[in-house]
Amino acid sequence: MKNNYKFYNFKNSNILVEELSIRIAADLKKAIELKQYAVLAVSGGSTPKELFQKLSHMDLPWHKVTVTLVDERWVETYSNDSNEKLIRDTLLQNRASFAKFIPLKNAIVKNIDGVLVTKNRFNKMDELDVVLLGMGSDGHTASFFPDTEELDDVLQTKDKCYPTTANVEPYQRMTLTRSFLLTAKSLILHIEGGVKKTAFDIAAKSYDHHKMPIIAMMQQESPILEVYHA
Fold it and tell me: What count of other Cβ atoms lies within 10 Å of the Cβ of residue 27?
């Protein structure tokens, strides 16, 4: 088994954001032309903020786009830890304010009890079109964390979302599963800086997804993982 990926390196973040926003917009347009709608799943964190702001201005029929999250921390949606808050403040603005949004968080106190509510939100969704992943310096992606109890389950289940536990606070998370993420036509990893580049290089040469879960997103030929780095 080999790790499959394509790696694109950019001189700086501004050039990456410009190129990646054009790429994502083109992929969404293509999906809309084919089936009259498109689904974009995005990650949180500080890395994609500028990309989201750029995307929000892209000339698209945003009313035909559904946006959701790759994963979410099980916190109140007004919390600065909330990926939903990040998306609403950056991506779902300007032209993109017309997009539909499907949150992963719901009002139930524990993620393990709230998973059925979240699953129901994806009942009529068979596939994703564009997935934008992030990666931690520990090699985690989505809410697939190294050496956690649920890791094998979330990587193998056919469910679309799954409650997981992080190695860092806040511990409770909800994530789209590997099988659902791999329904995407475009599977993109956006990373910036030397630390993340080093972590990815280590992962690309390894096959132990328990230590670095990003490896699990390279073990298929299609969709191939496309890495955008600055």
Answer: 18
pLDDT in tens, 3-61: 999 999 999 999 999 999 999 999 999 999 999 999 999 999 999 999 999 999 999 99
DSSP state of 144: B
Q: Characterise 142 by phi-psi region: left (phi > 0), alpha (psi -120 to 50), beta (else).
A: left
Mean pLDDT, the chain, whole residue set: 97
- Residues 58, 20 contacting (CB under 8 angstroms): no
Residue 195: domain span: 5-134+172-229
At residue 1, the pLDDT reads 72
Q: Residue 200 maps to which CATH number?
A: 3.40.50.1360
168 vs 34, 39, 66, 138, 145, CA distance in Å?
Answer: 41, 29, 30, 11, 9
pTM (two decimals): 0.98
Cα 8 to Cα 16: distance, rounded to the nearest angstrom: 9
For the chain, the domain total comes to 1
**Which residues, given as ranges, of the chain have pLDDT below 50?**
none
- Contact criterion met (CB below 8 Å) for 141 and 188: no
Cβ neighbours around 100 below 10 Å, total: 14
